[in-house]
């Protein structure tokens, strides 16, 4: 299903705004005041809200980066399709788990409905009756895993293929798989694992248990037996730590949260404050900034009269500073052919991956 992301996108600017001199008289600031109070909210799309609620289920349960007795877990990392180059684009790795025995990549789907095979394609019918067709998701996830192997090799970590595994994880309890998919060892239904939780498992230990169960599902029957007996060969601790460190350095998506709650996901290229640009490469990873705008018609009268600023940005991402209505970011949204300038008047928060 395709959604028109170009509609209802007044936050995108037709070009890069020019720097405006700071007006001394209130009449000089009137245009800026009009820009501020005209900013309308952009609520999140309903389909995105539903998908995010579901597909983030396992991620929220396990955390963005968690260290457990099983291993280290990373969420929402991106890896170049071609090692050392971003020109060919990046894959998103939903969940990567690094253990002393193997590195596992999970593709997470929160689908409710029926799923069956037609040739090599996966056909998914939602509860609403809508039918969607996909190429083999497990094969696609295998491509992501191969890209991760290439990345690790570029970091000097050349590991044999049997140290890597991948699975497609369905998190919704109401997913119905046909017989062929149900017996596919590359597919895991998290609801089945949750039902198998021992009574002694507490809420705090359930996460580790499910993680352990997922890892065991990634081994063959023979290897799983060895894993349970503790006889499976371990990677040297330094090698495991080096792999986890290399994966931790992979960045995730950058996010702009618009006024109204809509989130734009993609690559932040640069920010522009009063005509001065800051390259995104110089910004810290996994950091945030909050933008506080006086969008209220009456509160915005104060800066209109020269009493304070129309907006201010603060947080660890950038040094705190006042904002102007012509400030913007250059951002390449996922699914868009090219980057676009986005007015900071429409933005409430920025998060780097």
Specify the overall morphology.
elongated
Radius of gyration: 24 Å
Strand content range: 25-35%
Oligomer: single chain
What does this structure look like?
The protein is of the alpha+beta class. The protein contains ten helices and 19 strands. Strands 11, 12, 13, 14, 15, 16, 17, 18 and 19 form a nine-stranded antiparallel sheet that branches. A hairpin with a 6-residue loop joins strand 17 and strand 18 (about 340-345). It is elongated. It starts with about 30 loop residues before the first helix and ends with a strand.
List keywords for this structure.
353 residues, alpha+beta, 9-stranded antiparallel sheet, 6-stranded mixed sheet, 10 helices, 19 strands, 26% helix, 32% strand, disordered N terminus
Task: Provide a concise account of the structure shown.
This protein is an alpha+beta fold and 353 residues long. It has helices at residues 30-37, 46-55, 57-62, 137-154, 179-182, 190-195, 203-217, 221-229, 237-248, 301-304; strands at 65-67, 72-82, 85-98, 103-109, 113-118, 121-126, 131-134, 164-170, 175-177, 187-189, 254-258, 263-273, 276-279, 288-293, 311-314, 321-323, 328-333, 340-343, 347-351.
